[in-house]
Amino acid sequence: MTDATQRARKSTPYWWEAAPVRPLPEQALQKQVDVVILGAGYAGLSAGLTLARAGRSVAVFDAMNPGEGASSRNGGITSGSIRPGFAKLTRRFGEKTALAIEAEGKRAREFLYDFLKTEEIDCDFRLTGAFRGALGFDQYDVMARAAETLAKRLQIDTYAVPHGEQRDYIGTEFYRGGVARMDIGGLHPAKFHAGLLRVTRAAGVAVHSHTPVTAITRDGAGFEVTTRAGKIAARQVLVCTNGYTDGAAPFLRRRLVPVRSRIIVTDPLPADLMDRLMPKRMMMSENRQLGFYYRPTPDGSAILLGGRDSSFAGDPVEPMLRLRAGLTELFPELRDVGYTHSWFGNVAMNRDMLPRMFEKDGVLYASGFCGSGVVWAPWLGRRAAQRLLGERIEEPSAFDMRPPAAVPFFNGRPWFMPAIIKGFALQDRLALSRAIR
């Protein structure tokens, strides 16, 4: 195949076929509200809903259509994963803190699942479980020990899958075993956002699309927020812009690096082939620096695969070809398959790769979800709202901490990402060559 024939037929998200993002009707700007929120994705809407149901007046502003960023572009996997991994978290912070972070992930997933049920949000959610592949038997041993600790200490339904049993979970010989987690599932992210937007607006939250905030200024005990539509006074301000942070939040912008994540979707595959490749229809990931995440589409007819995109401008074909090569490495029988969609969106990384909630100069921030926003964004949006309400929480969030460190020589444009991605790719090649296989 030539590069031209390997291109996907559409460059818009697969999820928009069933749940397209749209602008909201224009509405008059209120003169004053209790809380202004920047960002109408999962985090901003979750916060707005919590605040409105507590009796606060709330206005949410988005520079694009609500949900047009990562909330309708992601893979729809409810992982709530932390990139450093349990072993690295333990080495860095100690086992107590590492367990607290994992325990909060468990609570965050449970909150999300209960929320979908309680609010009657139909977003094709299935608690399928997830499999994470190990590159070598040495890596498998580390992952197996971590799974055993989480199962014993936190009662998380997770266990090791030895190489001899791997084919029961995934139809590839690329890995050397892995770990299964049965508290992770998949959903349709754009349908989830549409449902969240519906219940948030029904609660009385004013959501403004295509209304970027241009400045946040202290005004006595409150704030004056300048938007494209005019100015609005607020007692409190919450910023939930994550990978789409712009100049309205310069403090956050210097600390969050927007990184492209690209996803491709195959043509529909024969049912017997899907049965061989993904026999349990689980969510999938792997233990690499530039690891892929992949899953069946909600109807089980095709495979969706995503990974980091080394580009930061335009829409080059090379990142799509890299994902295609990765899928073929896992499943050689898909070498000649066609692709319906290829698209990208921004995730937000910080220097320690931990989501967080923090305050600076009176403004509260909930951001830095590091590629796991399906779980962390609604959770930390809700926790941020509880903090604004002054509610006492029996279990403080493990992510309510100091701001992330600023990234040197960075102010919004990730000019260094192609080099970093190449460095990670080299590390992966070396790790694979050294792995005990």
Automatic annotation (TrEMBL):
Q: Which InterPro entries match?
A: FAD-dep_OxRdtase, FAD/NAD-bd_sf
Q: Which Pfam families match?
A: DAO
The source's superkingdom equals: Bacteria
Q: Which organism is it from?
A: Salipiger marinus
Looking at the record, the residues that make up the FAD dependent oxidoreductase domain are 34-387
* Entry keywords, A to Z: Oxidoreductase
Keyword Oxidoreductase on this protein?
Answer: yes
| Classification of source organism | Bacteria, Pseudomonadati, Pseudomonadota, Alphaproteobacteria, Rhodobacterales
A single GO molecular function term of this UniProt record: oxidoreductase activity
- Which named protein is this? Glycine/D-amino acid oxidase
GO annotations of cellular component type? cytoplasm
